[in-house]
C-alpha cells in the first residue's frame, strides 16, 4: 500500500478558506479530488484561490448543490484508485495519518472500512460498494443521518454491531441500558473479530489515535456548519435526512424486542432499528464493474 493507491475526496461548500487550510494538511503525493457543491459569490473566489494554490488537485465544480452523499458517490466514481478517503473541507489531517492508516491495514488486512475520524474521514476499499451499494442519496438535506444509515447497513452485512455504544447526549432509562448490555458487552469481541471489515479509531478498543481530533465538534478546530437560509437548512420544502431516516428505518424498543433478532439492528449510538425500506442501486453499472473486478461476479445475472 502506497500513496498512489488511495484518492482523497473532499466535498466543499461555502468554506473556501477552510478548504485551503484542509488541502495544506495533505501531502502533494496524494491524488485529491475536490467536489464543490455549487459555492457562489465571494466564497467561490476563495475556492478558486485554493485551486490556484494547489494546481495538482482535481477540482470539480457542480452546477447544483447535490448534498453530501451524492457528492461522495460522484467522487468515488471519478476516482481511479481501489481505496478512497471521503471527507469534507473542515477536516485537518495529522502529518502521520497515512502511516496510521497503513499500520491499521497491515495489522488487519481484511479491513475494508477504516474510520480515521468517526464519519469525518472514512477510508474504504471499493469492495464495500460492491458489497453494500452506494451512499444513499436520499439523505439530501441537513439535518441528516447518512452516517447512521451507513452504519446500520454495515451491521446488516456483518450480523453484529462492532462499534455501537451509548451516546452521551441521549438519556436512556436504566431498563433500556440493561436490555442492550448483553450486546454492548460483546463489542470488544466483535471489534477484534477477523471477520470484522470495519475499524474505528475512536472506538475504546482502538490502538490507534483519532486523526484530526481537534476538528471534532466542540474542539479547537471545529469549523462549524453553514446552516442558515442560504445554506444546508434551505431544503426548499423537501424532506430532510432525519425525516427520511425514520421512513427508511423503524425505531425499536429493545426492552420489547431484543436486538439482533427479527431484523433488529443495534445502531452506533445505542438506538435499535429495523429496516422499512430497501436501498436504491444508484449506479448499477459502476457497482457491477467493482464486483467483477474485486470478486469476479456479475451482480445482475438473470
Per DSSP E runs of 2 or more residues, the count of β-strands stands at 10
H/E topology pattern:
EHEHEHEHEEHHHHEHEEEH
What structural class results from the helix and strand content?
Answer: alpha/beta
The quaternary organization reads as single chain
Question: If you had to describe this structure to a student in words, what would you say it looks like?
Answer:
The protein has 302 residues and is α/β, with parallel strands linked by helices. It has one domain (3-295): Spore Coat Polysaccharide Biosynthesis Protein SpsA, Chain A, CATH 3.90.550. It is 33% helix and 16% strand. The chain contains ten helices and ten strands. The strands form two sheets. It has a seven-stranded mixed beta sheet, sandwiched between helices. Strands 8-10-9 form a three-stranded antiparallel beta sheet. A hairpin with a 5-residue loop joins strand 9 (264-266) and strand 10. Helix 1 (16-24) packs parallel to helix 2. The longest helix has 13 residues, at 41-53. It is globular, with a radius of gyration of 19 Å. The relative contact order is 0.14. Mean pLDDT is 93; it is low at 227-231.
Amino acid at each position: 500500500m502506497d500513496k498512489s493507491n488511495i484518492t482523497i475526496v473532499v466535498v466543499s461548500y461555502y468554506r473556501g478558506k477552510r478548504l485551503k487550510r484542509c488541502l495544506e494538511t495533505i501531502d502533494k503525493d496524494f491524488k485529491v479530488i475536490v467536489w464543490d457543491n455549487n459555492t457562489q459569490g465571494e466564497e467561490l473566489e476563495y475556492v478558486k484561490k485554493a485551486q490556484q494554490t494547489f494546481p495538482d488537485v482535481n477540482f470539480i465544480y457542480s452546477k447544483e448543490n447535490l448534498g453530501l452523499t451524492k457528492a461522495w458517490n460522484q467522487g468515488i466514481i471519478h476516482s481511479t484508485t481501489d481505496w478512497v478517503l471521503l471527507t469534507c473541507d473542515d477536516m485537518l489531517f495529522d502529518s502521520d495519518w497515512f502511516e496510521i492508516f497503513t499500520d491499521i491495514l497491515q495489522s488487519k488486512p481484511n479491513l475494508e472500512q477504516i474510520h480515521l475520524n468517526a464519519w469525518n474521514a472514512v477510508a474504504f476499499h471499493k469492495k464495500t460498494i460492491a458489497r453494500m451499494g452506494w451512499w444513499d442519496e436520499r439523505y439530501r438535506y441537513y439535518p441528516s443521518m447518512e452516517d447512521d444509515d451507513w452504519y446500520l447497513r454495515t451491521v446488516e452485512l456483518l450480523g453484529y454491531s462492532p462499534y455501537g455504544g451509548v451516546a452521551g447526549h441521549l438519556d436512556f432509562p436504566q431498563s433500556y441500558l440493561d436490555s442492550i448490555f448483553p450486546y454492548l458487552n460483546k463489542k470488544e469481541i466483535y471489534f477484534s473479530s477477523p471477520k470484522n471489515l470495519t475499524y474505528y479509531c475512536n472506538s475504546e478498543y482502538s490502538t490507534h489515535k483519532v486523526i484530526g481530533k481537534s476538528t471534532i465538534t466542540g474542539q479547537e478546530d471545529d469549523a462549524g456548519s453553514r446552516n442558515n437560509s442560504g445554506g444546508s437548512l434551505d431544503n426548499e420544502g423537501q424532506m430532510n435526512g432525519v425525516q427520511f431516516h425514520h421512513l427508511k428505518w423503524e425505531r425499536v424498543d429493545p426492552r420489547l424486542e431484543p436486538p439482533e433478532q427479527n431484523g433488529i439492528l443495534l445502531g452506533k449510538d445505542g438506538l435499535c432499528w429495523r429496516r422499512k425500506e430497501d436501498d436504491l442501486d444508484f449506479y448499477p453499472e459502476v457497482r457491477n464493474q467493482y464486483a467483477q473486478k474485486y470478486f469476479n461476479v456479475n451482480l445482475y445475472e438473470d
